[in-house]
Structures are given as structure tokens and as C-alpha cells.
Write a structure and sequence with these properties.
Layout (H helix, E strand, L loop, with lengths): L1 H31 L1 E2 L2 E2 L16 H40 L15 H10 L17 E7 L2 H17 L4 E7 L1 H14 L4 E7 H8 L18 H4 L6 E5 L3 E3 L3 H5 L11 E5 L23 E9 H6 L2 H16 L6 H11 L4 E4 L5 E2 L18 E3 L13 H12 L19 H11 L8 H6 L6 E2 L16 E8 L5 H8 L4 E7 L1 H12 L2 H4 L4 E7 L7 H10 L5 E4 L4 E3 L3 H11 L7 E5 L1 E3 L11 H10 L3 E2 L14 H6 L4 E3 L8 E5 L15 H11 L3 E4 L5 E3 L6 H8 L1 H22 L4 H9 L1
Parallel strand pairs: 3-4, 3-6, 4-5, 8-10, 11-12, 14-15, 14-17, 15-16, 19-24, 20-25
Antiparallel strand pairs: 1-2, 6-9, 7-12, 8-9, 13-16, 17-23, 18-25, 19-23, 20-21, 22-24
Helix pairs in contact: 1-2, 4-5, 10-11
Length: about 750
């Protein structure tokens, strides 16, 4: 396409040169032949050497002009020759549009108008076309269902946002899973000039469930057929995209193609780039009817208003019913039905140039869609093999895809200058809260982190779990960063129950985690682990935000608030479920304490019983947690009593107490003001005490902390005096807030702190 545009520009430049260069030259010469309003002869024969006007200099100028005129005439002669050659080649060159090869000119939609456009110069891709208004909203519809498709949508949206210059309105036809994931993602992404609307895909199932479909997309692969009914009645046009699409240009260029539709053209589609619909891929291959090679529905331009007037709903249903009598089922979901309709009504389709849907499927002819990288506009991974598909240039396509896959989504939060965004309550509240902070405050960065909105992708991997029907189920809750991934397999081996994890990762690290998890037999065999990605932003580790995210997305009535560096004892999951019943946790405000121990050895023969643990404790292989550096953090657990205890026992809150507890899912959240290292768990236990939770130690439960390198945050705490000062300030402010909220009873926390 690009090459042809360049050719046409040369054609136009040549024409202009032929017309205007001689004219300009003669005007210049003519003007130069007048001096003081009188004509000056250019002929040497007419010159007057003895005239005072005549000089050697003016003679040289005239000779120079005559030489230049001869050069211009010679250039014009060459240009005229090139122009005549270009004109003679033009029709035959463009005629290739009607062959079955994928020329770069493909997709004009109307062969007659194409030929007219070549002559008139205003119907080609390079000609004048109505531009998209600067702040015109572009509407995009995507059908999305499940966990994996939700990840694909994010990469697609990133590629669109990266190139876009216009406001966007995404219409997402999503099932309950995808809606939960994507609603949270876009709410926390907070991209200006982007609006999201959801439509319940499950409610649409009845519209297409009568159509048997063999395609891997399942019932959701048929839902593009019902968009005229699903999308708002006042929406006139929309771009429909598959989730496995990557944009390499501004989507506004595709939106502008709507202006080229003529007559009854209501569907903008790219021709299918495989031989599927030709029926010659294998013996007895019998595809659905299609016009020639058929059309691919990975990228569709829909004129909704005209489709509704044409009774599209009735049109596709009648066609599907008729063809299913002989075909029995669809092989390529909605694409088969779209093609069957087009076969009967070819006037409906406007054929898009094939670079708007470069299809990387098996047996593809996509290489004929581009000559250079700059020709690419949309890449479609429409093979079940996805990135593993065989293609001559697949490495380039894969690298382009991976660029957006790992691209920092926070960088896409840029404003569209000159296009006011719709009022967003969350964004306005955030700006108000930030404006109230004092930027000269030495603890400003700490305070700001409390209000930072971190982009969050829930259920990054497939999750499938139904809580036990006896209402005793417990979810292990923890948070981690990239340097603790090695703990995941061990925890899964120790805890067979559901797990909710919040991971603090960059976009690139999230993909590394995905590859790590997919390569682990242990992790892939567990579908009851919810992985929630909280994307990195700012300089602090938002430990309590991560805990809150993991807590919020559990499906069980109880949760075990742990840390990623701890391995629970074997059988702890079942033991806690029994303890929940025994201690009537459903009807009482209790926090069940799991005593914490630690080892300094990287290789540990994990104790299989309390007796074995006590033996290792006596031998010095194990220690009570933080015995050497922070004794009072777990001292109230009363380990001496625990050694001989056979029944649960109650302990009282003390200053700096931070045990690991089992609580109901309705317990208070962690306080977000505490980031990095220090007081993040202490503050939470203090609030549980203020709400009159009863702390009960479990006599036959334990967990062991495994050694690891010091975290970056504890290093900052130890080395940075200002860090410690700010932590002390935040701690005092938290205690004051507790006093205001809980009244007289909370004064004990100030007293205890002063005495500690």
C-alpha cells in the first residue's frame, strides 16, 4: 500500500513540475526583463553595448539564464516521458486488485469506483478522505469471557492506547469472570478519555445457544452476531475486534474508513488469508459457503444503524437455519455465518485492505499483505497455536506483541490535550486528597502512597473453587514480590486449601511470573489459588494494600492471614477447619493465633508433628519467631505455655504484638498508611483488639519462617534516619486516629506505647 501511495505521489509531483516549473521560469525571466518599467532585450543582437545600462555582469546573467532554461526544458522532457509511462502502467497495475492475490491495493470495496478513483485521484487510499475529528469518540466492541481472554484483552487495549489520539469507548460483552477482572482493572488504571461499558454475555447465550459450534471459542464466539441488539440503539457504528488482535497504528485510521462505505455497504471486512473457504485444505473438506476466499471476522466495521434497518437479526438467523440443515454445525463460529450471509448478499461488504487484519493462522497468505514494517496496521493471532504459529516473519510479529505485553501500562495514563475527559468521581476525589497534602513535608512520599491507585489485575490465572458446604472453609492469604516466587510451590505442598495471593510486579515481571507458573506442574495442578497482580508504582512496597487486595477476593467465610516466607505445618488446613467449629468462630469475634517459629537453615527437615518441632526447638534447629531481634512481636503468644498446652488458651494484647491469625472474612482491613517495613501488622492487630476481638492460641498449630535475603524495605529502614522518623510520625498519627474512633478504650494504646 505504502509503495503505491509513494508512486502516486511521484505521479502527482511530476504533473505539478511539468505544469508549474516552466511557468515560474518564464515569469521570472519576464519580470527580470523589465527595469524601471521598460523592457530589456535578452537578445545579444538587440543589446546596446554602448548603453550605460549594458554591463559585462548583466551579459553573464542573461547567458546563465539561457543555460538554465535549456536545462529546465530537458528536465521537463524527461518528466513528460516518465509521466506518460506511469499513465500507461496505471490501469494494469491497479487491475490486480481483482485477482486472488493480496495486493496492497486490496480492499477498495467497489471496483468501478476504484478505476474512477485512479483517474480522478480522489478515491484511492492516498487521496483525500474525511478526517476523524480531533475529539471524536471511537467505539470499540470486544467479546471477552474467562481468565485467559481477559489477559489478551489487556494486551490489545495497550496496543490501541499506545497509538491513539482520540477518546475511546470500549463496549465489552463479558461473562461474570471477565467483568469482575476488567472492571477492577480499568477502575484502577484510570486512563483519561476512556469509557468502559459492560454487557452481560451470559444473558445473550440464549440468542445463539441453538447454533452448534465446533470452534474453540465456544458459545462466546457467536456473540458478534447479536451486537445490533446488544449495543445501545443510538450507537451508529462500531469497530469489533477479537481479543487476539495487536494494533500497530492509530485506530482512528480504521475508524476513518467508515466514510468510504457506499450504498448498502454495512460490513467492513478483510478477505480471509487462508484457503479454508476454498475447500482444498484436505480431502473431503467441506466449509461453509463463502464469496471466494471468504472474509475474516477478527476485525469488523459495523454500520449498526443501517444493519438494524436491514433487519440484520432476521437475515443472519434465516441464513444460519438454512445452512445448518446441511452443515450441522459451524467450524469457525460467527465467521461461517457472516460469510454465508455475504455469499447471498455481496453488496453488504466493503472489503478492507488486508493490512487491517494480517492473519497469522496456519496456511496463511498474510505475507502478501505487507512489503515493509511500516505497512503493518493490525496483527491477528488467529491460530490456536497463537505465538507458536509458523510464519516467515513470526519473530518480528512476536516481538511486537511482546512489546505491548510487557509495556508499563502506567505510561498510558496520558491526557489527550484539547479533549476534555468525562468527570470521574474517583479521579476527582484522588486529586482532592493529594492537593491537601503538604509537598514540603519530609514525609510527603509516605503520605502520598496511601492515596496511590495501583492498577490491579485480579485472577491473573485460571481460578476454580467452590467453598466447602459446611461453612468451615479457610483461605490462606499472603502477598509477595518477584524475589519470593520460589516459595509458591512449597506453600502449595503444605496447604491444600484455597489460597489468595497479591503479587507486586511490573508488567514485564507479570509475564515472567506467568511463564514460571505455566512451567510448574505443582502450580498448574492447583486451580484454587487466586493470583492477583498489583502493578508497581511509586518507591515503596505497599504491603498493606496487597494484603487488602488478597483479603477482599476470597470466597470462603474464614481466612488465615499469613506471610509468603512461612510454611504452614502439614495438615494445618484441616486442623483450622475443625478449630473454626470447636471455637464457634461464626458467632464470636475471635482471632485464632497460629504460633510462629523460624529456622536459619535453608535446608530443613520440616517437623511433621508438635513433638518433633519441640525436639528441634530444644536442639537449636528452630527458634520462636524473631527471638533474636524482635522478641515482643510474638512474646504474648506465651510459647512456654504452648509447649504443654492441649487446649486453646486466651492471651491479652500487648504493645507491638503481631501474631498470624485466623479470622472471619469481615474483619477490618489493614491500614494503608504503613508501607514498606514497620508497623504494618502491629497496627492491624491493635485494631482487632480495639474492636474487642479475643486472641486465642491454637495448641497444635504452628508455622515456620524460612530464611531469605533482607528485603529492600528493611534495608532502607535500617540505613535511612528519615525513614524511621516518618514511620514514628505515622505511628503516632494512627494511635491518635484510634483514640478518636474508639474513644476512651483506645487510650491504652498510647499508654502501652509509652511504657514499652
Amino acid at each position: 500500500m505504502l509503495g503505491i501511495c509513494r508512486g502516486r505521489r511521484k505521479f502527482l509531483a511530476a504533473s505539478l513540475t511539468v505544469l508549474f516549473v516552466p511557468a515560474i521560469t518564464w515569469i521570472y525571466l519576464f519580470a527580470g526583463s523589465f527595469e524601471d518599467g521598460k523592457p530589456v532585450s535578452l537578445s545579444p543582437l538587440e543589446s546596446q553595448p554602448h548603453s550605460p545600462r549594458y554591463t559585462a555582469s548583466s551579459q553573464r546573467e542573461r547567458e546563465s539564464l539561457e543555460v538554465r532554461m535549456r536545462e529546465v526544458e530537458e528536465e521537463n522532457r524527461v518528466l513528460r516521458k516518465q509521466l506518460s509511462l506511469a499513465q500507461s502502467r496505471g490501469p494494469s497495475h491497479h487491475h490486480s486488485n481483482h485477482s486472488k492475490t493480496y495486493s496492497m491495493e486490496e480492499g477498495t470495496g467497489d471496483s468501478e469506483s476504484l478505476r474512477a478513483g485512479i483517474v480522478a485521484g480522489n478515491s484511492s487510499e492516498c487521496g483525500q478522505q474525511p478526517a476523524v475529528e480531533k475529539c471524536e469518540t471511537i467505539h470499540v466492541a470486544i467479546v471477552c469471557a474467562g481468565y485467559n481472554a481477559s489477559r489478551d484483552v489487556v494486551t490489545l487495549v495497550k496496543s490501541v492506547l499506545f497509538h491513539r489520539r482520540n477518546p475511546l469507548h470500549f463496549h465489552l460483552i463479558a461473562d461474570a469472570i471477565a467483568k469482575q477482572i476488567l472492571a477492577t482493572l480499568f477502575q484502577t488504571w484510570m486512563v483519561p478519555a476512556v469509557r468502559i461499558d459492560f454487557y452481560d454475555a451470559d444473558e445473550l447465550k440464549s440468542e445463539v445457544s441453538w447454533i452448534p459450534n465446533k470452534h474453540y471459542s465456544g458459545i462466546y464466539g457467536l456473540m458478534k452476531l447479536v451486537l445490533t441488539k446488544t449495543l445501545p440503539s443510538n450507537l451508529e457504528r462500531v469497530i469489533v475486534l477479537d481479543t487476539d488482535i495487536t494494533f500497530a497504528t492509530d485506530i482512528a485510521e480504521l475508524w476513518a474508513v467508515f466514510h468510504k462505505f457506499k450504498g448498502q455497504q454495512v460490513l467492513g471486512l478483510v478477505e480471509n488469508q487462508s484457503d479454508w473457504y476454498l475447500g482444498n485444505l484436505w480431502k473431503n473438506h467441506r466449509p461453509w459457503p463463502a464469496l471466494g476466499r471468504g472474509y475474516n471476522t477478527g476485525v469488523i466495521l459495523l454500520l449498526l444503524d443501517k444493519l438494524r434497518k436491514m433487519k440484520w437479526e432476521q437475515m443472519w438467523r434465516l441464513t444460519a437455519e438454512r445452512e445448518l440443515m446441511s452443515m450441522l454445525s459451524t467450524s469457525l463460529a460467527d465467521q461461517d455465518i457472516f460469510n454465508a450471509v455475504i455469499k447471498q448478499n455481496p453488496f453488504l461488504v466493503y472489503q478492507l485492505p488486508c493490512f487491517w487484519n494480517v492473519q497469522l493462522s496456519d496456511h496463511t497468505r498474510s505475507e502478501q499483505c505487507y512489503r515493509d514494517v511500516s505497512d503493518l496496521k493490525v496483527i491477528h493471532w488467529n491460530s490456536p497455536k497463537k505465538l507458536r504459529v509458523k510464519n516467515k516473519h513470526v519473530e518480528f510479529f512476536r516481538n511486537l506483541y511482546l512489546t505491548f505485553l510487557e509495556y508499563d501500562g502506567n505510561l498510558l495514563r496520558r491526557e489527550l490535550f484539547g479533549c476534555p475527559s468525562e468527570a470521574d468521581v474517583n479521579s476527582e476525589n484522588l486529586q482532592k486528597q493529594l492537593s491537601e497534602l503538604d509537598e514540603d513535608d519530609l514525609c510527603y512520599e509516605f503520605r502520598r502512597e496511601r492515596f496511590t491507585v495501583h492498577r490491579t489485575h485480579l485472577y491473573f490465572l485460571h481460578y476454580e473453587y467452590e467453598p466447602a458446604s459446611d461453612n468451615t472453609d479457610v483461605t490462606l492469604v499472603a502477598q509477595l514480590s518477584m524475589d519470593r516466587l520460589q516459595m509458591l510451590e512449597a506453600i502449595c505442598k503444605h496447604w491444600e486449601g484455597p489460597i489468595s495471593l497479591a503479587l507486586y510486579l511490573s508488567d514485564a515481571e507479570a509475564q515472567q511470573f506467568l511463564r514460571y507458573a505455566q512451567g510448574s506442574e505443582v502450580l498448574m495442578s492447583r486451580h484454587n489459588v487466586g493470583y492477583h497482580i498489583v502493578y508497581k508504582e511509586g518507591q515503596f512496597y505497599p504491603v498493606n494494600l496487597l494484603r487488602n487486595v488478597a483479603m477482599k477476593h476470597i470466597s470462603t467465610p474464614y481466612m488465615f492471614l499469613s506471610d509468603i516466607d512461612f510454611l504452614p505445618m502439614y495438615g494445618l488446613y484441616e486442623y483450622l477447619r475443625k478449630s473454626v467449629i470447636q471455637l464457634d468462630l461464626a458467632n464470636t469475634k475471635k482471632a485464632l493465633i497460629v504460633p510462629a517459629f523460624e529456622t536459619l537453615r535453608y535446608r530443613l527437615s520440616f517437623p511433621k508433628s508438635k513433638a518433633e518441632l519441640l525436639s528441634m526447638l530444644d536442639m537449636g534447629t528452630l527458634f520462636t519467631f524473631r527471638y533474636h531481634v524482635w522478641t515482643k512481636g510474638h512474646a504474648p503468644t506465651n510459647f512456654a505455655k504452648w509447649r504443654t498446652a492441649t487446649t486453646p488458651y486466651r492471651v491479652e494484647w500487648e504493645a507491638d504484638f503481631e501474631p498470624y491469625v485466623v479470622v472471619r472474612k469481615d474483619c477490618p482491613e489493614y491500614d494503608r498508611r504503613f508501607v514498606g517495613f514497620g508497623w504494618n501488622k502491629v497496627a492491624h492487630i491493635m485494631e482487632l483488639d480495639a474492636q474487642e476481638y479475643e486472641f486465642t492460641v491454637l495448641p497444635n498449630a504452628y508455622m515456620i519462617h524460612m530464611p531469605h535475603a533482607p528485603s529492600f524495605d528493611i534495608t532502607k529502614f535500617r540505613s535511612n534516619k528519615q525513614y524511621r522518623i516518618c514511620l514514628k510520625t505515622l505511628k503516632e498519627e494512627f494511635q491518635q486516629d484510634m483514640s478518636r474512633h474508639y474513644g476512651f478504650a483506645a487510650l491504652k494504646y498510647l499508654t502501652a506505647e509509652n511504657n514499652s
